Every structure is written in C-alpha cells, then in structure tokens.
Amino acid sequence: MEIHTLLSVALFAATMTGTPGPNNMMLTASGALFGYRRTLPHMLGICLGMFTLILATAAGLGLLFSRFPMIQEGLKWLASAYLLYLAWRIASAPAPSQHEETSERPMNVLEAASFQYVNPKAWAMAIAAIGTFSLSGGDYWLSALMISSVFMVIGFPCISIWAGFGTLIGRWLSTDRQWRLFNLSMGIATASCLIFIW
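^ Cysteine/O-acetylserine efflux protein, sequence as received from the core. Prediction below:
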C-alpha cells in the first residue's frame, strides 16, 4: 500500500476508534471503577477483536450479510440485547469500596475481543475499511492485513484516552452516592448507543 493510502487508513481508524461508541463508554466506566492498568486487558481485547473482525470481513462475512440480510438483522438484535445487559451491569456496579464484597471485575481479553463480533459500530468500521481501502488482485490480502494492523496500532492509543479519562474521573469520585450516579450515567450512555444501532 502506498503511504498516502496508509495515512488515509490511519485517519479513518483514529476517527472511528476515538469517537463515542459502546467500547469507549465501557472503557470509561472500567477506567473509573478499576483503574487504567486493570483495564488494559479490555483494551487489548478490543484491538485483537477488531484485527480479527477486519480480516473476517475481508474473508467474506460482509458479503454474507449482503446475501443474507436476516443474519445481519439477527446480529443486530443479539448486539442490542447484549449491549443492554452490559449497560445494566455498568449502571448497577457498586462503588470500588464495595468490590471486595462482589464479583465485579473488568472485561478480560477474550470477552472484549468477542464483543467486537456483536458490536455494530465495529462491524461498520470493518466493512467500511475493507470496502474502501483494500486493494484488488494479488495485493488484496496484504492490504487487508495492513488495514487490520493499522487499526490495532492507531486504535490502542485512541481507546486508551477513554480509559484514562475514566481513571481521572474515578479519582474525583469520593462517595458511594457519587459512584452510583456516575455508574448510572455511564450505563445510560452505553444503552444510548442503541440509537446508532437502530
């Protein structure tokens, strides 16, 4: 791929991964509740999930959706239900002072990677990236690999900002009531991502 194409992919990746969506809302909440370091597996899982999702899209999952729209519709319902479940978990999460008494923990790598496959924003990014930037002919798979790699390299610092922002917020919250209000607002913000799905 030529340098100007890679720069275009990088700009697209920064715009897509740096803007609000389910991943970034959950990272903000996780950063506030668990801190940046404990949120790292969640961030790594998002990057790994996007990497594999873009390659899976290049392999034909996007074509499968266009041929069988019911699969995409089913995924949309599954994604909506899962997003509401995650929003409820965020909204009802206890304050950090109560974490020892509960089983609350941040997402691990596998959970965060798997979430990308039911995340409509991730699908939109993957389909748009492959549809726009992949090269034809013998360079197709190399370009798909480059696109996936750029998303990993650019996406990590972009989503890190959201986890870092959450970590800063977590330092300002001092009472259980403030934590409950913050968790409720982050749960509502996560659930509001359904507007973009539908």
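Residues 3-13+34-68+106-179 form one domain.
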